[in-house]
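[step 3/7] fold_predict: job queued, chain A
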Amino acid sequence: MAPLPVSVSIRTMERVPDYTLFIDDGGVLNDNSRRAPEFQRLVADFFPPRLGGEPAAWAEANRETFQQVFDTHKDAMAVDDAYEQGAVAYETAWLTAMCEYVGVAPPEGDECAALAREALLFITRRAQAAFPGAAETVATLAGAGYTLHTASNQPSWELEGYLLCMGILDHFGILLGADLVNAMKPSCTYYERAFALTGVDPARALVLDDSPGYLDAAREVGARTVLVGGDASAAGHLAIPSLVALPSLLETLD
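[step 4/7] structure written:
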């Protein structure tokens, strides 16, 4: 699909930027429904030369095991100040479950976590799942003078890969992920630490996310919020159909 045109060009964005933008990745910059098959494709590229097994079996293993493994570990990762330990346990379990499905031996001890992290670095730098027009919109906003940070539950090193793959890494300041703030959305701690780390007054922060619950927490901390791809009429947030519509919205804000 060809990228949608960005609705407002740099030349027509005449207002001085009043807000620092905090932009979620999955659901805003990248399409999660497209990312899942990309993971399966790239898992099938990465693991067979290293651990054996057929590529198709690895792709199926990722499809069949991912959600259960993530659901088992997400609560541990979501505890404030416990993210990194929980993330290592999750990554180890992710690779172990796939190995069991494929029928190959997983690496032992710390080597399992290390190989899982290596695989994720490989995958995130190659997964093609950007929403149409998202990269162009980011370039427009940066060119108009807006400061952009991410605001994602993914770790910063994954975000670096995704943005590098989109060609927009240089437009962002701090890649705020759960690892940098040692907390996960929808914890208010996530946003409190994010604004402190970036030195941004919450009242001058505009947070974009596809989850109303996450935005509720950002608003509680004092930020202004934009729901992307949803109806905000019952949620009390500004709403746009996609990131492409953000430049037009920014022209209307006080």
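[step 5/7] annotate
The longest strand covers residues 205-209.
The radius of gyration is 19 Å.
exit 0
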